[in-house]
């Protein structure tokens, strides 16, 4: 069955947007995944097609109405009954590669893109939405977050990336490390040489160097991920290349 994305938005013309290009666009044209952007305004019932109203309790901005959103959700869920219903919001759990892997392994996703001050809390609860944030930033709408989530999922679908990349070795792969740095020709550029081991043709040495670099980058740039990686290693009793299990880096 084709992985299906149904998007509820006030701006359906934003889709597929960048997802119509490159790997995701080709996969879309090949039918490896499906996309349907549904206009929330089409579910409004008054002649002005109103989708929002002022917040109870006062304050700035407008809030998206639960009745209109519920009707929109019903239509999307009827098309994809087994897919999780995700509301993109800065109040949600942070999107990460583990969640992306889970979503990509499922039947697809229904994404609700908010606008204004957000969505009436009651429809979030009544529909059992999963609240997901694209990062600790505030966007003007959920659409860029939906594009981000979909891009990350679609590249994991069977046949989309081909042999071009290994999802395991990438940053945030199964080991939870950042990826090692990459180099290509020329071997020397502006006085900067490629690390000699990469020119050695010695596959085991290259693998060892990449592993050490991945661990060092994770330790230096993302101590949170490094701690989690060390904990996982400790549970599986494996020694780390670049650090001791107490979280203090080994001498380089
Ligand atoms: C201007 S924002 C509303 C922000 C909200 N008043 C708050 O402070 O949490 C409008 C919409 O953009 C989307 N949005 C904004 N930031 C987001 C983020 N970091 N991740 C996912 N969606 C986001 C949500 O759908 C939200 O309803």
Automatic annotation (TrEMBL):
<keyword id="KW-0949">S-adenosyl-L-methionine</keyword>
<protein>
    <recommendedName>
        <fullName>tRNA (guanine-N(1)-)-methyltransferase</fullName>
        <ecNumber>2.1.1.228</ecNumber>
    </recommendedName>
</protein>
<keyword id="KW-0819">tRNA processing</keyword>
<feature type="region of interest" description="Disordered">
    <location>
        <begin position="218"/>
        <end position="252"/>
    </location>
</feature>
<dbReference type="InterPro" id="IPR016009">
    <property type="entry name" value="tRNA_MeTrfase_TRMD/TRM10"/>
</dbReference>
<comment type="similarity">
    <text>Belongs to the RNA methyltransferase TrmD family.</text>
</comment>
<keyword id="KW-0489">Methyltransferase</keyword>
<dbReference type="GO" id="GO:0052906">
    <property type="term" value="F:tRNA (guanine(37)-N1)-methyltransferase activity"/>
</dbReference>
<comment type="subunit">
    <text>Homodimer.</text>
</comment>
<keyword id="KW-0808">Transferase</keyword>
<feature type="domain" description="tRNA methyltransferase TRMD/TRM10-type">
    <location>
        <begin position="6"/>
        <end position="227"/>
    </location>
</feature>
<dbReference type="InterPro" id="IPR023148">
    <property type="entry name" value="tRNA_m1G_MeTrfase_C_sf"/>
</dbReference>
<feature type="binding site">
    <location>
        <position position="114"/>
    </location>
    <ligand>
        <name>S-adenosyl-L-methionine</name>
    </ligand>
</feature>
<dbReference type="InterPro" id="IPR002649">
    <property type="entry name" value="tRNA_m1G_MeTrfase_TrmD"/>
</dbReference>
<dbReference type="Pfam" id="PF01746">
    <property type="entry name" value="tRNA_m1G_MT"/>
</dbReference>
<dbReference type="GO" id="GO:0032259">
    <property type="term" value="P:methylation"/>
</dbReference>
<dbReference type="InterPro" id="IPR029028">
    <property type="entry name" value="Alpha/beta_knot_MTases"/>
</dbReference>
<comment type="function">
    <text>Specifically methylates guanosine-37 in various tRNAs.</text>
</comment>
<dbReference type="InterPro" id="IPR029026">
    <property type="entry name" value="tRNA_m1G_MTases_N"/>
</dbReference>
<keyword id="KW-0963">Cytoplasm</keyword>
């Amino acid at each position: 069955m084709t992985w299906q994305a149904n998007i509820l938005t006030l701006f359906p013309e934003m889709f597929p947007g960048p997802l119509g290009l490159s790997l995701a666009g080709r996969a879309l044209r090949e039918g490896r995944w499906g996309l349907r952007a549904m206009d929330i305004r089409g579910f409004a019932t008054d002649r002005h097609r109103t989708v929002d109203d002022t917040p109870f309790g006062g304050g700035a901005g407008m809030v998206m109405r639960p009745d209109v959103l519920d009707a929109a959700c019903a239509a999307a869920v009827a098309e994809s009954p087994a897919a999780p219903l995700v509301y993109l919001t800065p109040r949600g759990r942070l999107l990460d590669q583990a969640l992306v892997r889970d979503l990509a392994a499922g039947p697809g996703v229904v994404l609700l893109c908010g606008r204004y001050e957000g969505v009436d809390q009651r429809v979030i609860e009544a529909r059992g939405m999963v609240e997901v944030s694209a990062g600790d930033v505030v966007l003007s709408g959920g659409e860029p977050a939906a594009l981000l989530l979909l891009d990350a999922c679609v590249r994991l679908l069977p046949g989309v990336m081909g042999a071009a990349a290994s999802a395991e070795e990438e940053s945030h792969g199964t080991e939870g490390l950042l990826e090692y740095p990459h180099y290509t020709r020329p071997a020397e550029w502006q006085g900067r040489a490629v690390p000699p081991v990469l020119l050695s043709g010695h596959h085991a040495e290259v693998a060892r160097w990449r592993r050490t670099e991945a661990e060092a980058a994770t330790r230096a740039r993302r101590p949170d991920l490094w701690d989690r990686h060390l904990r996982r290693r400790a549970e599986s009793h494996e020694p780390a290349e670049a650090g001791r299990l107490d979280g203090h880096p080994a001498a380089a």
